[in-house]
Design a protein that fits this description.
The complex is a heterotrimer. Chain B is mainly α. Chain B is built from three helices and no strands. Chain C is mainly α. The chains are: A mainly alpha, B mainly alpha, C mainly alpha.
Chain lengths: 221, 65, 240
């Protein structure tokens, strides 16, 4: 288990030193969201109606933007070989890298999302649901994204390809994430949504690391 | 004559029925044509290459080192 | 080395035997299905002649799913047993499946306009078929993204299996999303009972589409085998 935390610590240190790579994803999340009122107009009613969906779509895109470098830089400088060959099981290494990725990109977005939601005139009743749903779902985004990132390691035009592969797989998260906010604002509460988001997280946490590890092993062969 | 016109008009729905069949025919036929052309090109290139290069199967069937 | 080539050789023999049969069966059932579907069957009492679009739309949608199942199965075989032929079968399935999916979507739009009054509704089934098309496109793009064919094969196989796990989840979430957003007033296609006069052309067309799929799959795998041999020979010539 020690190796697991070593990988997490290493990736977090790298993220910090590489000029705030993860900060860029957060900036993209904020800037993109700010653009929407400028595009569709500042009427609070429309913003309140569309806000949850906008925030979720921006979160998906921001995570997507940061995924390309999840394995690619390690692949280029050769450290990925060492990480996969290391005594720690490859799927645990992937899990550790996902955790570090989430801490560096997902968590800051979870913290920022309520602020942006207030700017988008979201009903205060939805803020808690939004935060909790994001807390449950952003790790899933990192995990599913890890499969795509592992598959496209060393590919031509990896970034565009990654988008094409990962976005369809993100659809359930988008539906239940945005649905949670809507249900808690207008409907009977979002307990069911949270449970489904939790189930998706558990599934992604068990299935994605082995799949990504298999893809990485094939990439390094 | 009326029968043919009646058939072609599809009860007034011809702008929907015929394009649907046309799209299916175009898609399936197009993919078939492309696949066959690609298969022919590959097999022709392969045959050319094998003619140029005498087969090594005789040498290969000898005792393995 | 021997068993690598023994199987493709046997496959080619089988393919050469199957293709004429599947092609002729497909032509015959397709001709019969077209005749019965376009001329020999009654118009629907509600939908009129637009119901004839069903005879291409429904088989295309069925085959779109069947092709994905074939692709995933072949991918699993390729990953587990490292069977080189299975990779080529999976790769050859994808463009055919994508074509079926596109046909299902286009004919669906052409059917939706006269019956529902709109080209596109965000209906659960339509949405998930659209996503299926994206999965196919992603799979094909992944195959083309690598210079090394074995690397591409492995990555594509993993993606196909991930897609199999995800397809039911996507289907479930889209269904759920749809019931939340749309009043369930959309006209049910066909309904549970379908008149035999309509069922016969439908099944004939489905058989024709299945035969088309088998024939084209075998032809494309033959092409892939030739392409692979071509690459190997060219590499050998470049070395020697």
């Amino acid at each position: 288990m020690n190796g697991f935390w070593l990988v997490v610590g290493r990736d977090l240190a790298l993220a910090r030193r590489q000029g705030g790579e993860s900060g860029l994803a957060l900036l993209f999340f904020v800037l993109g969201t700010v653009l929407f009122p400028l595009g569709i107009g500042p009427e609070t009613q429309m913003l309140a109606r569309a806000g949850a969906g906008l925030l979720w779509i921006m979160a998906l895109l921001a995570v997507l933007l940061s995924l390309e470098r999840l394995f690619q830089t390690d692949f280029e400088d050769g450290s990925l070989d060492l990480l996969i060959m290391a005594p720690l099981a490859a799927s645990l290494t992937v899990l550790a890298k996902c955790l570090a990725h989430w801490l560096a990109t997902g968590l800051p977005m979870v913290v920022t999302a309520p602020l942006l939601a207030i700017m988008l005139a979201m009903d205060p009743a939805g803020l808690g649901a939004l935060t909790l749903a994001m807390l449950l779902a952003t790790p899933t985004l990192s995990l599913i994204g890890a499969i795509g990132a592992a598959l496209t390691v060393g590919a031509r035009r990896g970034g565009v390809l990654l988008t094409l592969l990962v976005l369809p797989l993100y659809i359930p998260v988008l539906i239940f994430g945005a649905g949670a906010v809507e249900a808690s604002v207008a409907g009977p509460g979002a307990k069911g949504h949270f449970m489904i988001l939790g189930a998706l997280l558990l599934m992604a946490a068990t299935l994605a690391p082995p799949a990504a590890a298999a893809a990485l092993r094939h990439a390094l062969e | 004559m009326d029968g043919i016109v009646g058939f072609l008009s599809m009860g007034g729905y011809w702008p929907f029925v015929w394009p649907a069949y046309g799209a299916a025919a175009l898609g399936l036929g197009g993919l078939l044509a492309l696949s066959i052309r690609w298969l022919r090109a590959n097999e022709a290139a392969l045959a050319r290459l094998e003619r140029e290069r005498p087969r090594r199967s005789v040498a290969r069937s000898g005792p393995a080192p | 080395m021997l068993h690598r080539f023994a199987n493709p050789a046997r496959f080619l023999r089988i393919a050469r035997w199957v293709v004429p049969w599947s092609a002729s069966l497909g032509l015959v059932s397709g001709a019969a299905g077209l005749y019965l579907g376009l001329a020999g069957s009654p118009a629907d009492y509600q939908q009129g002649d637009t119901v004839r679009i069903m005879y291409v739309h429904v088989p295309a949608a069925w085959m779109a799913l069947a092709a994905y199942a074939t692709m995933a199965l072949a991918s699993a075989v390729a990953l587990i047993w490292k069977h080189p032929l299975a990779d080529l079968i999976a790769k050859s399935t994808a463009p055919i499946g994508a074509t079926f999916t596109a046909i299902a979507l286009i004919t669906g739009a052409l059917w939706g306009q006269p019956t529902w009054g709109t080209w596109w509704v965000w209906d659960a089934r339509l949405t998930s078929v659209l996503i299926l098309l994206f999965l196919y496109v992603g799979y094909l793009a992944l195959w083309n993204a690598f210079d090394d064919p074995t690397r591409a094969a492995r990555a594509a196989a993993v993606l196909a299996l991930v897609g199999v796990v995800n397809l039911p989840i996507i289907k479930f979430s889209v269904d759920w999303w749809n019931t939340l957003h749309q009043p369930a007033s959309v006209l049910k296609i066909g309904g549970p009972t379908i008149h035999p006069a309509m069922l016969t052309p439908l099944l004939l067309m489905a058989l024709a589409f299945l035969c088309y799929f088998i024939t084209l799959l075998l032809l494309r795998v033959r092409g892939e085998l030739a392409a692979r041999k071509l690459r190997a020979l060219q590499a050998a010539r470049a070395e020697g």
